[in-house]
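Example 3.2
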Amino acid sequence: MRRCRAVIFDLDDTLVQTSRIDRASILIAALTVITDARRAEAAAVRFAALLKAEPFPPSPGEMVASWRTSLWARALGGELSELAVGDAEAVQQAHDTWVAERLGRFKLSAEVRAMVRRLQSAGYTTGVLTNGSTEVQRAKVDACGACELFGAERVIVAGEHPEQKPAPSIFRTACAALGQSVESAVMVGDSLSADVAGGINAGMLATVWVKGALGDSLMKEPATAGAVERPQPTYTVGTVLELEAVLDLIN
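Structure, written as tokens:
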């Protein structure tokens, strides 16, 4: 009898290469308001650093789009006085261009789609569990067509629930949506602290860490102090496309 009956995927930097998409779209956005390439690149680096440090507003009532527009204002900084358009217009243009470019590029590759369909044809129940707010993550889900591939009820945005990854409760919620037990499900994701630690604490059958060729996954992890060890995944892969071989080992 097959041990693994369900596979739950993270979205960002697991199914879709979000970090690569962001690097390209942030630079394009900066270039729309700063014509000098070197200065635009510097502004893009500043915005990327701000976004990594403070991706969501500190006040629960503030919209994410408003907060991220303010990050663009900080990133553009001293460049604003030399722009041809007004400051507020330039900031809004940079933000809106970034969002449009980001969502326009946010697609599931043909290879990823084919792999998921093979798993489904082989009898695996598949779903998506992604952290983040409804405002941001649902736009990504729509852009990449995840609901069409997995089924709308099997695409879980953790920000719509009381707890997000790595809380065990959200993994149980995801497994329930798939109609499977946590003991028969595998969690696949790029975050050691959210996907791997959460999957372990929830009692899932196995965790698969998508390390990534560019080291984006490690760069996103919070720093650990002293003797604190990173959670240990059951399996490590360079790309989600290696998952089928891992499932063969599990079963």
